Amino acid sequence: MDLNRRPKIGLLLIGAERFQPLGEGTKDGTYKERKAEETHRYIDRMQEFADVVFGEPVYTRDAAEREVSRFFNEKVDGVVASFMSWAEDFAWIRFLRELPPMPLLLVSFVRDSLDITDTNDENQFIDFLSAGALVGFQEASGSFKRFNRPMSELLIGTLDQTMPKIRNFAVAAKARAVLRSSNLGLLACYNEAMWATYVDPYNVFMKIGPEIHFLSVMEVVDEIEHTDDAVIDRIVKDLANRYEVYPNVDFEKFHASVKATYAMEQVAKKHGIDLLVLNDIDTVLFKFVGLRPGFTPLDPEEKMVTVPEGDIGGGLATYILQMLGGSPANFIEPFYLDHENGLIVAGHAGPNHYHSGNGNTIIARDERFAKSQWKYAGAPFAWHVFPAGLKTMLHMSEKDGRMKMVCTLVECLPTKHYLASYSHANFKPVHGTPEELFQKICENGVTQHYGIVDGDHLDELEELAKMMDFDFCRID
Predict the structure, then answer these.
(1) Are 15 and 32 contacting, i.e. CB atoms less than 8 angstroms apart?
(2) pLDDT tens for each residue of 383-437
(3) Which candidate in 35, 242, 407, 447 could, as Cys together with 394 as Cys, close a disulfide (CB 3.0–4.6 Å)?
(4) pLDDT higher than threshold 80 for residue 337
């Protein structure tokens, strides 16, 4: 699944059929010619962040139906619609009825300035008619509300005022479309120690989109047995050249961990998995594999997102953030608050994207399991410190059959490796104290897992939550 593709947005522009020929011979041309010029301005601005699907301005019922077919056949993520002036509303109503369920944003574009002083002048009179987008917007809003389509919003403003909102709409519509086409793999089961992370697989498919495939540990065991050791030797060598390796790392166990990681990734790919949710503390995994795979993703360019502890909600949060952020997202668990220094200390054991460069990753022994009875006790893993910078932090879980999102911004601070066996970092809230932040978070009822990614994506998350009918809380 290409998480970084551009949004694909249909653009519907409705004009007045009876106005089309008016203004022949005037300085600025006919109404139809003026609207064609406006169209280019809208498309140019939207193409800064989306691929725009557009035929021509709509003036008739037949043209409206053609645009419905165009948008459906080209699989747009959503539609931006606008009345360019007053217009007969039959085309709009037909469009509302025929358009399949998808995100729809009704926009009224307001001109930055007007130069209408005397409409006795024919050129100015046509400009007066052409500038009447507010009339069309009011007219369109009535049917818009009567149809009461889901995933629909309206917006009014200048191009500069509306484009940030349209961009958020486009990004969220793309995220919705990607989720509906994604495959989620659970290897091999929910985490029996954390019932609060359980979700209803049917609800995930029906209300969010991904199909859930239940993968078997024995598939991984079989893949391990049939994997050429020479392939693994090359990967081990590459990782050892790329990252610092601690002296106490056992290279036989290093090889075993990479081999298990490779096998797990191959099994997931055979099933077409985009988001792999690994229950990495499953005793069946430890018994038959002898360790928890410690190096996914093996390839820095790997598109599949992998998270630990069998938490589908946490996995979806990480997957969505990686899509919105366009950069690797990480999976964290806030461990404790350092009150004296105003810090949140957070991280997680198990798989986490570690290819961020800047010396943030060390290959180290997994001290947490070093004295266990499993075959490869203490097998190394990619010990990662999350890169510093502003992060969006997102929690997702299920309540009463609905998914919930709780999100905020945190500042990830420059951190040295100090929590053995856990990828980690120190964080500060953007606003308030850590205690105030977690008071607000926990009042919503959460689990302990979150995704984080570079940048501020709260607006896009809020837009996506509206489209998906999620409960939503943003803490600024």
Answers:
(1) yes
(2) 999 999 999 999 999 999 999 999 999 999 999 999 999 999 999 999 999 999 9
(3) 407
(4) yes
Of 124, 152, 179, the residue that ends a domain is 179
Cα–Cα distance, 36 to 415 (Å, whole number): 55
444 is written with which tokens?
């919503």
Distances (CA, A) of 448 to 201, 271, 311, 331, 387: 20, 29, 10, 11, 21
Q: Which of 275, 311, 298, 83 is nearest to 192 (CA)?
A: 311
290 and 420 together in one domain: yes
> Two tokens at 83?
């009345």
- In 3D space, the residue among 88, 89, 91, 82 whose CA is nearest the CA of residue 111 turns out to be 82
Contact present, 314 and 307 (Cβ < 8 Å):
yes
| Mean pLDDT on 372-392 | 95
Distances (CA, A) of 148 to 118, 133, 153: 40, 22, 10
Structure tokens at 76: 């747009």
Q: Is residue 358 classed exposed, middle or buried when 0-12, 13-18 and 19+ CB atoms within 10 A define those classes? A: exposed
Task: Summarize the confidence of residues 289-312 as an average pLDDT.
Answer: 96
Q: What is the pTM of this model?
A: 0.95
| Count: domains in the chain | 2
Question: Quick check: 357 pLDDT over 80?
Answer: no
Q: Which residues of 96-131 are buried (b: 16+ CB within 10 A; e: fewer)?
A: beebeebbbbbbbbbeeeeeeeeeeeeebbbbebbb
User: Could you tell me the end-to-end alpha-carbon distance of the chain, in angstroms, rounded to an integer?
Assistant: 31
Residue 456 φ then ψ, to 5°: -100, 110
N residues, the chain: 476
Same-domain check for residues 90 and 237: no
Which of 162, 179, 196 lies at the terminal end of a domain, its last residue?
179
In which residue are the tokens 């995220």 written?
Answer: 175
**174 shares a domain with 189:** no
Before 188, cis peptide (omega within 30)?
Answer: yes
Q: Which domain, by its residues, includes 266? A: 182-475
Q: Let me know the angle formed at the C-alpha of 329 by 326 and 333, rounded to the nearest 5 degrees.
A: 160
Q: Distance (Å, rounded) from C-alpha 307 to C-alpha 115?
A: 58
Place of tokens 């209803």: 200
Gyration radius from the chain CA atoms? 27
User: Whole-angstrom Cα distance, residue 8 to residue 77?
Assistant: 5
Decide if 450 contacts 332 (C-beta within 8 A): yes
CA distances in angstroms from 211 to 179, 203, 449, listed in the order given: 9, 10, 22
Instruction: Tell me the C-alpha distance between 397 and 405, whole Å.
Output: 7
CA dist 434 and 437 (Å) reads: 5
166 plus 188 within the same structural domain: no
